C-alpha cells in the first residue's frame, strides 16, 4: 500500500480538526520534542511546531513527507520529516516528550511491534496519544463495503478485521507491559461536501485506498456498482439535505507512565 498514491493531502485537510484535538490534549510546549508517527502530510506535527515544539514527522510515504516539509519551510516551523515505519522508528530512545499518531499507527501491520517502538521513543515522563476510528457509522460501512467488493473482484476472502485501537482494553494490553496506563476519550468529526456524489468522486480520485482499489474494480467491471451502492449508503446517512454531511466517531487513547 503506497499512501503517496492519489492526493492524500486533500483527505488530510478534512481530518485536520481531529489532529487539532489530539494536539490540544497533548499540549506541547516550547522546548519539547513531538514525534508524529504516520504523519502523512504533517497535520499534527505542524500544529505542534506552531506551538513552539520541535516536531519529527515519520511516514513511509516519501511524497507526503515532501509535502509536509515544504509546508514547514514555507511557514518557518521547527519540523523535520523522516522516512520510517511504526515498527522501526528512526528516533532515539526516550527522545519524544510527546509521541502521537492521528489515524496513522492504526494501519501498522503488527500492532505489538508498533506499540513497543512508540514506547521506546517515549520519554520517561512523556505522554502518548493515538487517534483511531470507531468502526461504526456511514464512513466505516462504506470502507467495509469497498473492501469486500475489492476482495470479491480479486477472488480473495474478505479483509481481516483490524486491531481494535479504539478500545481501551485492547490498547492497554499493548502498552501495559511497557509500564504505561491507558485512558480513552471519544470525539466526533463531521465530513462534508456539496453532495454525496461529489464526496464519493472526490474520494475515488484522492484517497490512496480508493486509488489502489481501482484496477481490481475496473478489471471486474464493478466500479459503477460500487459507486451506486455508496451513493445509496451516503444518501440514507446524509445529515444535510442541502449538501452532504456525515459524522464519524473516533477515540483518542491517552497513554502515560503508570503511577
Give a summary of the structure in a few sentences:
The chain is α/β, with parallel strands linked by helices and 259 residues long.
CATH architecture: 3-Layer(aba) Sandwich
- Biggest sheet statistics: 7 strands, mixed
Strand content: 15-25%
Distance between the ends: 39 Å
Q: Tell me the domain tally.
A: 1
Can you characterise this structure?
With 259 residues, this protein is an alpha/beta fold. It has helices spanning 8-26, 43-50, 62-74, 111-121, 137-154, 168-175, 196-206, 208-219, 223-237; strands at residues 33-37, 54-59, 79-83, 96-102, 122-133, 180-193, 244-257. The protein contains nine helices and seven strands; from the N terminus they run H-E-H-E-H-E-E-H-E-H-H-E-H-H-H-E. The radius of gyration is 18 Å and the shape is globular. 42% of the residues are buried. The model has no long low-confidence stretch (mean pLDDT 95).
Amino acid at each position: 500500500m503506497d499512501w503517496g498514491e492519489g492526493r492524500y493531502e486533500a483527505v488530510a485537510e478534512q481530518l485536520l480538526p481531529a489532529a487539532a484535538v489530539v494536539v490540544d490534549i497533548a499540549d506541547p510546549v516550547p522546548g519539547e520534542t513531538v514525534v508524529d508517527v504516520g504523519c502523512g502530510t504533517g497535520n499534527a506535527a505542524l500544529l505542534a511546531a506552531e506551538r513552539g515544539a520541535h516536531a519529527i514527522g515519520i511516514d513511509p510515504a516519501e511524497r507526503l513527507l515532501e509535502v509536509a516539509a515544504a509546508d514547514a519551510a514555507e511557514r518557518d516551523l521547527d519540523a523535520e520529516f523522516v522516512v520510517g515505519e511504526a515498527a522501526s522508528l528512526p528516533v532515539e530512545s526516550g527522545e519524544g516528550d510527546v509521541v502521537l499518531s492521528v489515524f496513522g499507527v492504526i494501519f501498522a501491520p503488527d500492532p505489538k511491534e508498533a506499540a513497543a517502538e512508540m514506547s521506546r521513543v517515549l520519554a520517561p515522563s512523556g505522554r502518548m496519544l493515538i487517534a483511531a476510528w470507531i468502526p461504526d457509522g456511514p464512513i466505516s460501512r462504506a470502507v467495509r463495503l469497498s473492501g469486500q467488493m475489492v476482495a470479491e473482484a480479486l477472488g480473495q476472502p474478505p479483509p481481516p478485521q483490524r486491531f481494535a485501537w479504539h478500545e481501551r482494553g485492547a490498547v492497554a494490553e499493548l502498552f501495559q507491559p511497557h509500564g504505561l496506563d491507558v485512558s480513552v476519550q471519544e470525539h466526533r468529526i463531521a465530513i462534508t461536501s456539496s453532495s454525496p456524489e461529489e464526496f464519493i468522486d472526490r474520494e475515488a480520485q484522492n484517497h490512496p485506498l480508493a486509488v489502489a482499489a481501482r484496477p481490481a474494480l475496473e478489471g471486474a467491471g464493478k466500479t459503477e456498482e460500487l459507486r451506486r451502492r455508496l451513493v445509496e449508503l451516503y444518501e440514507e446517512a446524509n445529515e444535510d439535505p442541502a449538501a452532504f454531511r456525515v459524522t464519524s466517531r473516533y477515540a483518542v487513547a491517552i497513554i502515560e507512565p503508570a503511577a
